[in-house]
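Sanity check

After download, print the first record. It should look like this:
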Amino acid sequence: MYTLLIIVLALLVIVVIFNLYNLTVALIFPAGLVVWTFVGTRYVIEGNTFKYRCGLLSGEFQIDSIREIIKGETVWIGANKAATATRGLLIKYNKFDDVYVSPQDNDEMVEVLLSKNTAIKVSTAHDQ
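Expected structure tokens:
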């Protein structure tokens, strides 16, 4: 995510330096989306509900529905990716749903979720 942010901001600087203002409009939307995703990613636990927001992606689910958490996972395709980093948590809930999140502290997030649902199976990406 940092790399993408740096690339977009570098392109904006180049546009300004070389007076390519017609490209500015084309870069403002992607730059805004990257910044919004980067600074607007949030995970909130309210009661028994896990809520997430990452740019345009948001959702919520009941913590009681979590079946498994895989720690240290990096998901490139397949899951809802509400994350801005690698080596996060893949949370599997309901029968077929999953979401990839990247909290600041994976272990702390797992502890909080386990305190609300002790039936969650926890594994690491290397166990798979």
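If your output differs, re-run the checksum step. Summary of this record's structure: The mean pLDDT is 87.
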